[in-house]
Amino acid sequence: MYSWTQVVLIVFSLLLTSVARSEEVQANRPFKVAYAESWAPISSGQGESVQGILPSIIDEVVSRRMGIEVVHQGFPWARAQEMVRSGGVDAFITTPTMERMVFSSASREVVFTLRFQPVVRAGSEEERLLRSEEDLTRHLASRRYCDVLGNGWAAQFYKDKALAYVVVPTIDICLKHLAEGKTDIVVHATPVVQSFISQLDLTEQIVILPLVMSSSPDFPLLLSKESSFDKEFLEKFDETLAEIKALGIWEVLVNPGAVSSN
């Protein structure tokens, strides 16, 4: 029979071997991340051609600073979630709902905050009011609002505030209506709005105000429970992400080509 000391040594040796094997597996395989393929400029592109704000952040943290090869993959959103659930990819970046937490573990650090800010015509009465008034329901309840079909955040936002809004197929329609005076206020995801303002050449006509809605969602990294990347990886990820935030690098990555709101 083994002595107590020998048992402890055997167990300790097995643990070290397990950790070493885990580290070897992680070192010898890429970290695969799934993204929505049609959410420019946050993420866009099919398969490994995906690019955008989220891939840029992961490249900086995991590839450049942690030294782990990264494979970015763009999918239709439902498939992206299923790939994380099954372990076909290691992670995705989104809201940690109760359903998603069944098959994934969340990073402590927020990878991306999807900022929702009001957009108005430059020089309008709405701009004047919103630069000094943060409550849309006090003086702006009767204004004309606009958002896109299928935006769950907008549906909940306007329901909570008891505000009526027009639903259109795409956000560029809202922005065109805003510039033409057919809509008064658009409250939408800032990176998406910035991209369309530039594409539509509306930088002189409409402005994004600095007010960020308190219900803007935070997106951590959600690591699949089927992934070979483990708790230690997630802890190192948090440390590294916190470092680039402290250095000011993260803010630059989440606001590429930001439209001035002053």
What does this structure look like?
- The chain is α/β, with parallel strands linked by helices.
- It has 2 domains: 4-113 and 217-254, D-Maltodextrin-Binding Protein, domain 2 (3-Layer(aba) Sandwich), CATH 3.40.190; 116-208, D-Maltodextrin-Binding Protein, domain 2 (3-Layer(aba) Sandwich), CATH 3.40.190.
- The chain has helices at 4-27, 53-65, 77-86, 98-103, 125-130, 136-139, 152-161, 171-180, 190-199, 231-246, 249-254, and strands at 31-36, 38-39, 43-44, 70-75, 91-93, 104-113, 116-121, 145-148, 165-168, 186-189, 206-208, 218-224.
- The strands form 4 sheets. A 5-stranded mixed sheet has the order 4-1-5-12-6, with helices on both faces. It has a 3-stranded antiparallel sheet with strand order 10-7-11.
- The model is unreliable at 18-26 (pLDDT under 50).
